[in-house]
Design brief:
Ribosomal Protein S5, domain 2, binds cytidine-5'-monophosphate, Alpha-Beta Plaits
Length: about 325
């Protein structure tokens, strides 16, 4: 029986790159937010052995380097099962777009395969397997608004932001994440580990202040309740939270900076590169200017879609809608 899972994308609302660690990864802090754009992953479990991947998009590898293959292999091993697993990926999201598509595809594979095999991993085991396949996977086991720490794989569900209109611009540029990190190191080699770690603390406090509506203090449990979208987004701009990757990716791909400017001119309240790009998103207070902004980008030859951010409950409801 084939099981379909919607594999949603994410954006990063702020991303701070910290020191290079001994394991070759960078410490980082980011706020992940799932959005309503998605691929669809279909998993078919049958008799026999072997994992097969099918995808019409020629940019997606269909061999054992595919994140879905790596996930399926791990899930079968975890259950000590041998089956034939056929995975079909229907792509809507860009490849190397900074929207976490390959990571999300792998998590969708895990969820579909659990159903297909009628076995379930424990929640912590799921997170662990996901983190083994990539730093950006565990967030998709949480969904909604998620704090990411460590190399991005340590995830904490936060109180959901309200659904916000947003436009995702997807220029036809692929940005390699390892290369973007390497470029960051080249440009920021002078930062001491202490300076690097201080930057992350400033970033974390800014996130706290935005989400909790008051200055960071180590005591007390904050609860804010959300303002109107516009006030929320203006507060976000005031924090100065940004994505460190912009400083290395924009100089290499100036067209992406132009897309950011175009979104700002179209009335987006907050605009940023997502992950290491190349997707650039704008958050809007209302749907109408978002739809207009997407159309205007398309008229200028830039692929763009108007969508909304996806809170946690909706994320899970929509992801598993066709899997029952
Ligand atoms: O974890 P993932 O496989 O997605 O990472 C791909 C590459 O990106 C890593 O091999 C590493 O070079 C780089 N990376 C990093 N620091 C992170 C996450 C990824 O340097 N926090």
């Amino acid at each position: 029986m084939a099981i379909s899972v919607r594999s949603f994308a994410k954006i990063n609302i702020g991303l701070c790159i910290g020191p290079l660690r001994d394991d070759g990864y960078h410490e980082l802090r980011t706020l992940y937010q799932t959005i309503a754009l998605h691929d669809t992953v279909r998993v078919d479990v049958g008799r026999g052995v072997g994992i097969e991947i099918a995808c019409k998009d020629p940019r997606v590898p269909c061999d054992e380097t595919n994140t879905c293959y790596r996930m399926a292999d791990r899930v079968l091993r975890a259950f000590k099962l041998r089956n034939k697993v056929r995975i079909t990926i229907e792509k809507e999201l860009p490849v190397q777009g900074g929207l976490g598509a390959a990571s999300s595809n792998a998590v969708a594979t895990m969820l579909a395969l659990e159903k297909g095999l009628k076995h379930q991993l424990a929640p912590l085991e799921r997170l662990q397997l996901a983190a083994e396949v990539g730093s950006d996977l565990p967030l998709f086991l949480v969904g909604g608004t998620v704090l990411g720490t460590g190399r991005g794989e340590l995830v904490y569900p936060l109180e959901d932001l309200p659904g916000l209109p947003c436009v995702i611009a997807m220029p036809e540029v692929g940005v390699s994440t390892p290369s973007a990190f390497a470029e960051w190191d080249t440009r920021n080699g002078k930062l001491t580990p202490q300076e690097s770690s201080d930057r992350m603390n400033v970033f974390s406090h800014a996130i706290f202040e935005w989400l909790c509506g008051r200055k960071f203090s180590p005591t007390g449990v904050p609860s804010k309740g959300w303002d109107r979208a516009e006030a929320l987004l203006l507060d976000l701009v005031r924090t100065g939270i940004g994505n460190d990757f912009e400083s290395v990716v924009f100089p290499k791909h100036p067209a992406l900076r132009e897309v950011k400017r175009a979104l700002e001119r179209s009335g987006a309240k907050y605009v940023s590169l997502s992950g290491s790009g190349s997707a650039v998103y704008g958050l809007f207070a209302d749907k109408e200017p978002a739809a207009k902004a997407a159309k205007s980008l398309m008229d200028n030859g830039v692929m763009a879609k108007a969508t909304v951010t996806l809170p946690r409950a909706k994320y899970w409801e929509e992801a598993l809608k066709n899997s029952r």
